[in-house]
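Anyone have tokens for ABC transporter permease? Sequence:
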Amino acid sequence: MSLSIWLGSLEQGLLWGAMVLGVYITFRVLDYPDLTVDGAFTLGAAVAAQYILLGGNPWLAILLALLSGAAAGLLTGLLHTGLKVAPLLSGILTMIALYSINLRIMGQANLSLLRVDTIFTRARDIPGLQTFGPVVLGLLVALVVVLVLYLFLQTELGMSVRATGDNEQMIRSLGVNTGVMKLVGLATGNALVALSGGLVAQYQGFADIGMGIGMIIAGLASVIIGEALVGSQTLFRAIMAAIVGSVIYRAVISLVLQLGLPATDLKLLTSLIVVVALAFPLLRQRLGLRSLRLRGERDAETGQCEQNLSSRRG
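Reply: yep, here.
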């Protein structure tokens, strides 16, 4: 793979990293199977693209995308906490509604940003950063998101959200309103997803109504890959694992495409990656148990041989 392809994988992994962190918040921290992600990602892209085309500031477009994602997460949370809709169904309902909302915002199925000013065109205009501008920008955004999210989850509010996902009954017995904590967690997660959508739209130069399809699977794959390689023993490692997993996932996708896989098979590849990532801990455990069993058998044979030698000498 050439340097440009590696750089592209790194750029995409960093920009999609916020989406992966959003999936981590809902699925891992809050323990909520939220399918709003596919719609929230497109929502962030649609809001950012339309605002830029109307003459708005590209950075302010990112902020608006973030707020729109938070609103989508709140809608999902209200369906669950207010109307007692099942978690899985509440996310599906919001995702379906967002498809029409996104079309309303965009006015058409695709918006082009190729001839307008974005944060990435400005980054490439910086002297000396024509090639590495998007990478530097992606690193800065990823660092800010990781730092803010880490500090938030260390606060009393953030720890209450984490406790709600760990043991909802216990934290409710301590007087914490778990419904509010779910709203906060869902709003935070989908805000990060929409933030990523706004960044990706500006990076790719377009926003498309179907660009969010499969984002939830890609996010889960990245989270699982990162946790398998980096670990999740501490909060900081778990957050970093999501970013690392996002970069590795995008690198694998780029590598497979370079080997000749049709782009139409990417969803199938994503599903296979998720299956392998899910099976990896079990395979590692079984291989570990097998190695321990073989070692025990060897030790038993060695002990038996030593016992036989001792009896013969005696």
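The chain is about 80% helix and 0% strand.
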